[in-house]
Design brief:
Keywords: Lyase, Pyridoxal phosphate. It contains 18 helices and 14 strands. By secondary structure, the chain is an alpha/beta fold. Helix 11 (about 250-265) links the parallel strand 7 (about 240-245) and strand 8.
Length: about 475
């Protein structure tokens, strides 16, 4: 028997009931050796594979923890056990009263789980799932398919717990998230054009390399871990009336719903999804998990085409309402959170608040409402684009085309009219060649920043009273 196998056998055979510091110290050494050796072995074996050419059968795609024929609803005891086990390893994030309470007519509290170390609530489920593995599974390691937050959470806590982690990320995964996963010491495989293809490869590799596959939104331990957020909410916000939960695969929704309804059946649970991939909404209508083709959305973390079978079984009888949010309101929600709460939140994390901004929940007026801000991993380049689109949707950034006199003083007069109405010119351009008016006219194209959509309408009226040809792009009014 080789030395590596000796170490493994010693570790697996260490009694779990012995309370000895010397044994614990030895276990740390065993785990470190096994962790490094196993990662090196996995890295070498994966490097030999041409993953695209792997023969994948139906048996390879079976996930025994997520069986559509035998779903496993989680119970409150699962969540309370998870809360005990992850204590000290996951942040208890603040749940503070929002500056926007007066603006919305509700007493809003934001549960700021974007402040977790990896930037999302996914750490709760990831850590509990890893802690719940058998000793042998901890040695062998785990694998997952994810484009971002689940992958980062699993990689980070895998490193802390010395459990080997392999993640299969689709080619569309943001570079920042891929880099983060690698920095946590995990093995990252970039394969598949979308998350479904990545999952197929991950399940195949799990069988080949004896790795435990952990579904990021449907493994029972993941759901139990996510539910710990609700325990914190109820302790932090007494007499909460409603919780508006951003929903994708429905793992967070399931955990929060089971915990909150057990502790107080009168708490209203509302699911908020992007209208471009409302898979839980459609599943509720059809009475079973239903495939929904995802479209491009700002809430990319919620774009899960089929909700988890365990998640659906846990939540569907307890959720009070489902709403679908328009893209422009997700953008506005991100802008509002940045401006008024000083919180950088990704589209998926802002979806619950977007439902309030869109006015989809008038029944919550005067109520105490908690909204999880469950993720803050948004690329800086995307954030810039989102904020610009939000300013347009909010009626604060407008685009105009005005035909003015092409004579000395013509542009000056136009600019004075703009400034006298409190608008700021962000960009301006002239067009002469394609203009069909007289030769002494010029079309001015301008991008202007105004205080709000009402000011934009006032400016439009002033322009139309002064100039004959005025065109304004659609703006605000939401």
């Amino acid at each position: 028997m080789d030395s590596k196998h000796d170490i493994k056998e010693q570790f697996l055979n260490t009694p779990t009931t012995v309370n000895s510091h010397s044994v614990e110290d030895l276990n740390v050494d065993f785990k470190e050796h096994l962790y490094v050796d196993r990662l090196n072995y996995l890295r070498e074996e994966i490097s030999k594979l041409n993953i695209k050419e792997l023969e994948i059968t139906q048996d390879d795609l079976i996930d025994k923890f997520c069986d559509p024929e035998n779903p496993v609803p989680i119970k409150f005891n699962d969540i309370s056990a998870a809360a005990y086990r992850i204590k000290g390893g996951v942040e208890v994030t603040p749940c503070t009263r929002s500056h926007m309470s007066a603006l919305t007519g509700m007493e809003i509290f934001f549960k700021k789980d974007f402040l977790q170390y990896t930037g999302s609530f996914k750490e709760r489920g990831a850590r509990y799932a890893l802690l719940s593995l058998s000793k042998e599974q901890k040695v062998n390691g785990v694998i997952a398919a994810s484009a971002g937050n689940h992958a980062q959470a699993l990689c980070y806590h895998g490193k802390l717990l010395k459990i080997p982690v392999v993640v299969v990320m689709p080619k569309i995964a943001p570079i920042m998230k891929v880099s983060n996963c690698r920095s946590y010491g995990a093995i990252v495989v970039i394969e598949g054009t979308n998350i479904s293809e990545a999952k197929t490869y991950a399940l195949k590799l799990s069988k080949m390399l004896n790795l435990m596959y952990i579904n990021g939104y449907d493994h029972p331990d993941i759901l139990a871990g996510q539910g710990t957020m609700a325990l914190e909410i109820i302790e932090q916000v007494p007499n909460v009336d409603a919780i508006v939960v951003p929903t994708g695969g429905a793992g967070l929704l399931a955990g929060i719903t089971v915990a909150a309804k057990y502790m107080n059946p009168d708490i209203m649970i509302i699911s908020a999804e992007s209208e471009r991939c409302a898979s839980f909404y459609n599943s509720m209508i059809n009475g079973k998990p239903t495939f929904t083709k995802p479209e491009s959305t700002l809430a990319d973390g919620l774009a899960v085409p089929l909700v988890g079978v365990n998640s659906y079984a846990s939540a569907h009888k307890l959720v009070d309402k489902c709403v679908r949010v328009k893209e422009e309101f997700i953008a506005i929600a991100i802008l509002r959170l940045l401006e008024l709460e000083k919180a950088v939140v990704e589209g998926a994390g802002a979806c619950g608040f977007a439902a309030i901004v869109q006015g989809l929940l008038p029944e919550l007026k005067g109520k105490r409402v908690v909204i999880p801000l469950c993720g803050g991993n948004i690329d800086t380049s995307i954030l810039g684009r989102v904020l610009e689109r939000a300013l347009v949707a909010d009626g604060r950034l407008i685009k105009i085309w005005v035909t003015i006199l092409d004579r000395p003083g013509g542009l000056t007069e136009f600019c004075k009219l703009i400034s006298s109405n409190g608008a700021s010119i962000k960009d301006i351009a002239h067009e002469r060649a394609w203009l069909k008016d007289d030769i002494f006219s010029v079309q001015v194209q301008g991008v202007l920043e105004v205080e709000n959509s009402e000011k934009a309408r006032e400016l439009e009226m002033k322009l139309r009273s002064k100039y004959e040809n005025v065109v304004m792009a659609p703006y605000g009014g939401f």
